[in-house]
Amino acid sequence: xxxxxxxxxxxxxxxxxxxxxxxxxxxxxxxxxxxxxxxxxxxxxxxxxxxxxxxxxxxxxxxxxxxxxxxxxxxxxxxxxxxxxxxxxxxxxxxxxxxxxxxxxxxxxxxxxxxxxxxxxxxxxxxxxxxxxxxxxxxxxxxxxxxxxxxxxxxxxxxxxxxxxxxxxxxxxxxxxxxxxxx
Length: 183
Hints:
CATH architecture of the largest domain: 3-Layer(aba) Sandwich
Strand order of the largest sheet: 1-10-11-12-9-8-5-4
Order of helices and strands: HEEEEEEEEEHEEEH
CATH class of the largest domain: Alpha Beta
Number of domains: 2
Structural class: alpha+beta
Distance between the termini: 68 Å
CATH topology of the largest domain: Protein Transport Mog1p, Chain A
Shape: globular
Radius of gyration: 22 Å
Largest sheet: 8 strands, mixed
C-alpha cells in the first residue's frame, strides 16, 4: 500500500514539472530581457534627463499637449550621428526632459541608425525572443538611467526610435494616454 501512495504522489509532480518545462520552452523567449546599454548617456546630446528645455536656445516648441511639450532643433536638419532622419523631437513632462523620438525612412537609413546605436551603446540583443528580422523588427537597450527602443517596419521601410529616461517614461505614458497622442 505505501508503494502505491508514493507512485500516485510522484506522478502529478512529474506531470507538473513536464508541463512547466513545456510552457517555459514555448513562452519564456517572449519574456527575454533587453540588451544591456553600455555607456548610458543619462540624457541626449549633453542634455541630462530631468533638465528643463526652455533655456535651450537652439530648440523651438512645436507641440503642446498640456503636461507634455515637444521641441525640435531649428537651425539644422534632424540627424542621429551622421545619418539624416525625418524628424527628431525632444519631449518634457511637467517641465523635465525625458524622451527623444526619432522617425526615419528607408533600409539604408535603418542600417546606419542601427550601426550607430550599436557603436554607441553596445551590440544588439541576440537572445531567444528578440526580433532581428522580419516584417517588424525590435531592438532594445536598457541601462540604469536610459532605455532605447528601436522599431523598424520592413514592409513600409519606416523606423521609430525612442530614447528615454527610465524614471520619467511612466509619467509620459500616463500623460499621453490621457491626450490620445501617438507621438
